[in-house]
Amino acid sequence: MKAMVCTRYGPPEVLELQELEKPVPKADEIRIKVRASTASAGDCEMRSFSFPLFLWIPLRLFFGVRKPRMNVLGQEFAGEVESVGEKQTLFQKGDRVFGSTELKLGANADYICLPSSYAIVRMPEGLSFEGAATIPTGGMNALFFLRKAKIQAGQKMLIIGAGGSIGTMAVQLAKLSGAKVTAVDSKEKLDMLLSIGADKVMDYQQEDFTANDETYDVIFDIVGKGSFSKTIKSLKPKGIYLVGNPGMGDIFRRLVPGMKGRRKIIVAAADYKAEDLRCLSELLATGKIKAVIDQTFPLEELRQAHHYVESGAKKGNVVISNE
């Protein structure tokens, strides 16, 4: 089978198209013919190994010291079940499915074998493979954090870095909850954010949301590049600050009550559950949320896709097609 292999840590050029053995499913696994996957900021971080210093040693030990142990990237996929292990009972050959590879990665290939217990569900009718592949990572992360915040109708929510895969899902899910959403990102993404329901948009390069008197019930910081001390002032006294990309400083602040007053800071990693993906699937099927696709690249052009993701211009999701 064809796969894009990450031969070492480094720039997109370390990705090479190779022929690998077609995987054989274990007793509790299913083998999926991958029709579409994605190239995400997380994939680029793993390829280049650009993680915060406090995560460097444990992640290097996990992913591989000298070169990647899981050398085929790709965290989410959509495709068809081609064969099943003898002990799994959830899926049948021919099922159209989408889901997360979790830390096994491997979706940027023709085939992948995964435990049937992973966050994998059947695709709703009428949804394309390309659209379905964009939902798992962004959707489950956004759903996880919004549930943590217990977002309610009428609340004001600020989403920093709203134009990516997590942000575009967070905007739509927050609007479904009845929140009033202000989305912050670069000017090229603002029209797209308005089109998916944002009430107000801000170009972070031209407008400083911390400089006005506006305050919010919930702030969801996905990119983690701004000033915490300035941003926290835009949060209401009993507001909730969601940290989607924590650094050591964010974790420290969570442990020091005096730095946040009555405000609540949530630093966490999302759980990936089939029931959550099924919830998102139902919202997709009924048109309450939609996939946001910027560009689609063939598998062979994964290098170019990574360059585009790292440019910061990505609006929503970049899809990798195996068709």
Task: Give a nutshell description of this structure.
The protein is of the alpha/beta class and 323 residues long. Helices cover 27% and strands 27% of the residues.
What does this structure look like?
It comes from Planococcus dechangensis. The chain is an alpha/beta fold and 323 residues long. The chain has helices at residues 41-48, 53-63, 129-133, 136-149, 165-176, 190-195, 228-231, 248-254, 274-285, 302-310; strands at 2-6, 15-19, 29-39, 76-84, 96-100, 111-115, 120-122, 156-160, 180-185, 200-203, 216-221, 235-243, 264-267, 293-298, 317-321. 27% of the residues lie in helices and 27% in strands. Strands 3, 4, 5, 6, 7, 14 and 15 form a 7-stranded mixed sheet that branches. β1 and β2 form a beta hairpin. α4 crosses α5.
Number of strand segments? 15
Please describe the biggest sheet, giving its number of strands, its sense, and whether it closes into a barrel: 7 strands, mixed
Question: Could you tell me the radius of gyration in angstroms?
Answer: 20 Å
Summed up, the helix count is 10
Low-confidence stretches: 247-259
What are the SSEs and their pairings?
Layout: E1 2-6, E2 15-19, E3 29-39, H1 41-48, H2 53-63, E4 76-84, E5 96-100, E6 111-115, E7 120-122, H3 129-133, H4 136-149, E8 156-160, H5 165-176, E9 180-185, H6 190-195, E10 200-203, E11 216-221, H7 228-231, E12 235-243, H8 248-254, E13 264-267, H9 274-285, E14 293-298, H10 302-310, E15 317-321
Parallel strand pairs: 8-9, 8-11, 9-10, 11-12, 12-13, 14-15
Antiparallel strand pairs: 1-2, 3-4, 3-6, 3-15, 4-5, 5-7
